[in-house]
Design goal:
The structure holds 2 protein chains of 2 kinds.
Chain A lengths: L7 H14 L1 H8 L3 E2 L7 H20 L8 E3 L11 E3 H12 L3 H28 L8 H23 L4 H15 L5 H8 L9 H31 L13 E6 H26 L5 H4 L18 H9 L5 E2 L7 E2 L1 H29 L15 H20 L2 H8 L3 H40 L1 E8 L5 E6 L3 H8 L28 H13 L33
Antiparallel strand pairs in A: 1-4, 2-3, 5-6, 7-8
Chain B lengths: L14 H6 L26 E2 L3 H31 L5 H33 L2 E2 L1 E4 L7 H18 L5 H21 L10 H6 L15 E3 L17 E6 L6 H7 L1 E5 L18 E5 L11 E3 L4 E3 L6 E3 L5 E4 L11 E3 L5 E3 L17 H7 L5
Antiparallel strand pairs in B: 1-2, 4-5, 5-6, 6-7, 8-9, 9-10, 10-11, 12-13
Classes of the chains: A mainly alpha, B alpha+beta.
The structure holds protoporphyrin IX containing FE (HEM) and FE2/S2 (inorganic) cluster.
FE2/S2 (inorganic) cluster binds next to loops of chain B.
Catalytic activity (chain A): a quinol + 2 Fe(III)-[cytochrome c](out) = a quinone + 2 Fe(II)-[cytochrome c](out) + 2 H(+)(out)
Cofactor (chain A): heme
Protein name (chain A): Cytochrome bc1 complex cytochrome b subunit
Chain lengths: 553, 369
């Protein structure tokens, strides 16, 4: 099975290219780059491919869409709106839907791809968070990711406003109401955004250039940077047999990974086409043209805006007037829900890698990811954040919930106001307990093996279930567990006792850091707690493996 | 052929080994599975070839899927020509045909490639080394030195005049784009005063008070005709029926009460025949508060469910809105039509920084908000 000479049609062009840019050297190093495999590594790819599909379908839409708020009388082929005065933007969206072959498909695919793009990014970010894949050296890519997520929300918001139907207008109106509530700059921001009073005649064309040029341009640049960093730093891998912090185990880029990626792109594309064909989305013709005097009941934003909507609904009425009748109005009922949840989530995401580093003192590179159970505090923090976000998101549809369960609408709000504080706390406690429980189970399996289902009768007459050693792959996964590092000296009450800690540790902040480090890190349930008997050589997992003794407990 | 030694230049003998095989250990990442160039892939550890029977099966299966993709792709093109659009039903059929064939093409293609990877390509478990991201100390030192030396050579460190004037030169250029954005906004920056007024405060061209007209039909409203208690109308200002900017502030919700239902929060002087007009623009973030519950007199905003008591000055009884919906002073003109006698006493719609507690100010002056 010799590979033989390269065929002429390939040799010719590659020779041409190589003589001009020396591509061979690059390819030599990269063609067989190894990519580790795990289903959860595909989540980011969903987002990537959805973005490409957004570019393709979006470009098609730009050929027909007219980003103008100028008035026109609809004369297209949708009967119910014939003769109605509307904006050019809305008329052209109807035109795309009913008079361009494939237009409706492209519109629906564009919208579905937008949902898949944001959802894909969110789930991908959660994977990275819970496995600790954001740790050194990948903090930069994590920050790029947080930026991408923020920009995607903006991109979705501007896109949703473009068709200028009644539903998109409601979203725009809320955006305006929130923007104008900002202290000092609110009126300036809105009058500059809308070119005067709301709604004006400018906002659609301005959102258009943001939506199809500025934000996608930045997204594309950031996504490229994201990919380059991933390529340079190599993908993280799941713990397992033969996988260490110093290697990558998996399939080569060429041909296997490339083919798989191609298939996955086609698959994402196909699923979006399927949704665009069979699942109607944003049927703008049913809503009618935008008019600030009207609203369709039960209007809902796209899912990624739901948490802001929920926050707005949840907040009690509260307005402060600093200077009485002459100004200084702070509508806290708008400011808090618009800024605080988003602020907590985005800032929290951006800072987490650095806060964790500060608390654990861990400045090493990490290429083998954690199983979520093995860093219980991180996992619990993540779960409380999900609960916080999820509750807000659910409450963004509290009218639907109230109708569905036939409960009072107002009660969903009252209950929500309590849950938003209690829920994350409960999620923390439950997750923490669950993680420790799972760690204990692992220790048990390592110590006693797995139940085989075979019952044996002992000579004494007693029945026992035979335990067998776990599958080597599973065992390797479990044995990879390492204690979460603790900063030097944090585990002794008298920091001067062991001589290591610096002066910084004695300041109030230093003491807090030491306390947090001790709580956050360490080995909660050692694998040896399961009373290992066979694999003594592994019994002290986690201790002595690191060259820095201070990092272990 | 040229005489230098790039790898791809002598494809006949060299490329196959380089492309399929491993980079030489000198390249740094040596352990692509084997030290030896893998002209015989069988020998490469971590690469397990498929047996020929499986591969053969895979080939047939993948080919079938690719043929399906091809046919369905043709179907897409045919559908484009055959199915026209033009009304809802036709569009639906066209959408189904185009979308269905596109979906099938893409999914069949995806499935075909998966079969190819799974059944024909080898199973891989290659191992590659990782190296710490940090560069080696010599390189860092070299870069540091070179950087400083370059700075020195350029003179930027030694010549403060050069440095400072360069910075000064850049400053206006940096601000220029911001200056250019000035005309995004209107020329006059009397934003608060604009927000305080609606077209209800303007008389009509012939100097008469502005009539309330029904939204949609544009018909003026005769007080005597709007006479069944519990009745409600969405109302816009005469002459501005299609002016979205005017409507965004001036739209009203008009409610007919029984006289005894009206409570003290509502200004009865502005309620001719027990007809009351409130701003329809929610004081939360500006959605039209469009829902009305007759029995309880509740106005409900569908956006975030702020609930206002229409019988009692539209005060907030639930939800995030912090202020009542402002009441418009209305009266019946000589012909019996409802007209606005003045503008709202306070700004309508969402709060803004310069607004202040306008309601308290009006009350202080003895008025009614
Ligand atoms: C990258 C993320 C993007 C997101 C999240 C996004 C989201 C959206 C959404 C939600 C809509 C409303 C769709 C509807 O009519 O139902 C929309 C409309 C639109 N988008 Fe995008 N989009 C993205 C990228 C793009 C790009 C790259 C382009 C162009 C190159 C584009 C062009 C358009 C156009 C022209 C419309 C209006 C079409 C219409 O509504 O009929 N979009 N976008
Ligand atoms: S806009 Fe009316 S409740 Fe929010």
């Amino acid at each position: 099975m010799s590979t033989g000479p390269v065929p002429k049609p390939i040799a010719g062009p590659s020779n041409f290219i190589d003589e001009r840019i020396g591509a061979g050297t690059f390819l030599k190093r990269n063609l067989r780059k190894v990519f580790p495999d795990h289903w959860s590594f595909l989540l980011g790819e969903i987002a990537l491919y959805s973005f490409i599909i957004l570019l393709l379908t979006g470009t098609f839409l730009t050929f027909f869409f007219k980003p103008s708020m100028g008035h026109t009388v609809y004369e297209g082929s949708y009967d119910a709106l014939k003769g109605v005065t509307m904006s050019e933007a809305y008329a052209s969206s109807l035109h795309i839907s009913f008079d361009i072959r494939g237009g409706l498909l492209m519109r629906q695919m564009h919208h579905w791809a937008a949902l898949l793009f944001t959802a894909g990014m969110m789930v991908h970010a959660l994977r990275v968070f819970f496995t600790g894949a954001y740790r050194k050296p990948r903090e930069l890519n994590w920050l790029i990711g947080v930026l991408l997520l923020t920009l995607a929300l903006l991109e979705g918001l501007t896109g949703y406003s473009l068709p200028d139907d009644l539903l998109s207008g409601a979203g725009l109106r809320i955006t305006e109401g929130v923007a104008i509530s900002l202290p000092l700059v609110g009126t300036w921001i809105t009058f500059f955004l809308f070119g005067g009073e709301y709604p004006g005649e400018d906002v659609i064309s301005r959102f258009y250039s943001l939506h199809i040029l500025l934000i996608p341009g930045i997204l594309l640049a950031l996504i490229t940077a994201h990919m380059i960093l991933m390529w340079v730093q190599k993908h993280t891998q799941m713990p397992g047999k033969g996988r260490t912090n110093e290697n990558v185990v998996g399939a080569p880029f060429y041909p296997a990974f490339m083919a798989k990626a191609g298939a996955y792109f086609m698959f994402t594309f196909g699923v979006i086409a399927l949704l665009g064909t069979f699942a109607q989305i944003n049927p703008i013709w049913l809503f009618g043209p935008y008019n600030p005097a009207n609203i369709s009941a039960g209007s809902q934003p796209d899912f990624y805006m739901g948490f802001l909507e929920g926050a707005l609904r949840l907040m009690p009425a509260w307005e402060i007037n600093l200077f009485g009748g002459s100004g200084g109005t702070l509508p806290m009922n708008v400011l808090i829900p618009a800024l605080v949840p988003m602020g907590i989530i985005m800032t929290g995401l951006a800072l987490y890698p650095f806060l964790e580093q500060w608390v654990t003192g861990d400045r090493r590179e990490h290429h083998v990811v954690d199983r979520p159970r093995n860093n219980p505090h991180r996992t619990s923090i993540g779960m409380s954040a999900i609960t916080f976000y999820g509750l807000l998101w659910l409450l963004g549809a509290n009218d639907e919930i109230a109708a569905f369960f036939s409960v009072s609408l107002n009660w969903t709000t009252y209950v929500g106001r309590v849950l938003i504080f209690v829920g994350p706390f409960l999620a923390y406690v439950i997750t923490y307990r669950t993680c420790l429980g799972l760690q204990r189970k692992d220790a048990d399996i390592i110590g006693h093996g797995v139940e085989s289902g075979v019952i044996k009768r002992l000579p004494s007459g007693e029945y026992i279930e035979v335990h067998v050693p776990p599958h080597p792959a599973i065992e390797a996964l479990m044995r990879d567990k390492k204690p979460v590092p603790i900063i030097a000296g944090a585990d002794s009450d008298d920091p001067d006792g062991d001589g290591i800690p610096s002066k910084g540790m004695r300041s109030p902040l230093g003491k807090l850091r030491a306390k947090m480090s001790k709580a956050y890190g360490g080995e909660k349930i050692a694998l040896t707690d399961g009373h290992a008997h066979g694999h003594e050589e592994h019994a002290a997992v986690g201790s002595g493996e690191d060259d820095k003794p201070s990092l272990t407990h | 052929m040229t005489d230098n030694n790039h790898d791809i230049e002598q494809p006949e003998e060299r490329v196959p080994r380089r492309v399929i095989g491993t980079p030489s250990p000198a390249a740094g990442n040596s352990l692509l599975g084997a030290e030896e160039p893998a002209t015989e892939e069988v020998d490469v550890p971590g690469v397990v070839l498929q047996d020929e029977r499986t591969a053969k099966k895979g080939e047939k299966f993948a080919a079938l899927l690719f043929v399906i993709a091809f046919l369905s792709g043709l179907g897409f093109i045919v559908s484009y020509v055959v199915f026209q659009v033009g009304d809802v039903e036709k569009t639906q059929v066209s959408n189904l045909a185009l979308g269905g064939t596109l979906t099938l093409t893409l999914l069949a293609l995806a499935a075909g490639i998966v079969v190819w990877v799974r059944l024909i390509m080898p199973k891989y478990s290659l191992v590659q080394e990782r190296h710490p991201m940090v560069s080696d100390p010599e390189a860092r030192e070299y870069v540091g030195e070179t950087f400083l030396q370059g700075a020195k050579e350029s003179g930027i460190t030694k010549r403060p005049l050069l440095r400072r004037t360069l910075l000064i030169a850049a400053a206006p250029l940096g601000v220029a784009p911001l200056v250019l954005l000035r005309d995004l906004g209107p020329p006059h920056t009397n934003f608060p005063s604009k927000l305080r007024h609606t077209v209800w405060g303007e008389k009509t061209k012939d100097g008469k008070p502005r009539k309330l007209v029904v939204e949609g039909t544009g018909a003026p409203i005769r007080a005597a005709d709007f006479n069944s208690p519990g009745g409600i109308l969405s109302v816009v200002p005469e002459g501005f029926e299609h002016d979205l900017n005017a409507l965004a502030k001036a739209t009203l919700i008009l409610i007919k009460f029984r006289p005894e239902e009206i409570k003290s929060g509502t200004n009865k002087n502005w309620a001719p025949n027990s007809i009351v007009a409130y701003s329809k623009i929610c004081t939360h973030v500006g959605c039209p508060a469009a829902l009305y519950e007759q029995t309880t007199h509740h106005i409900l905003c569908p956006c975030h469910q702020s609930t206002f008591d229409a019988a009692d000055g539209a005060k907030v009884i639930f939800g995030p809105a912090a202020r009542p919906l402002p009441q418009l002073p209305i009266a019946v003109d000589s012909e019996g039509y409802l007209v606005a006698t003045a503008d709202f006493a306070v700004p309508v719609g969402p709060s803004f920084w310069e607004r202040g507690d306008a309601e308290a100010e009006v009350r202080e002056k003895g008025g009614h908000a």
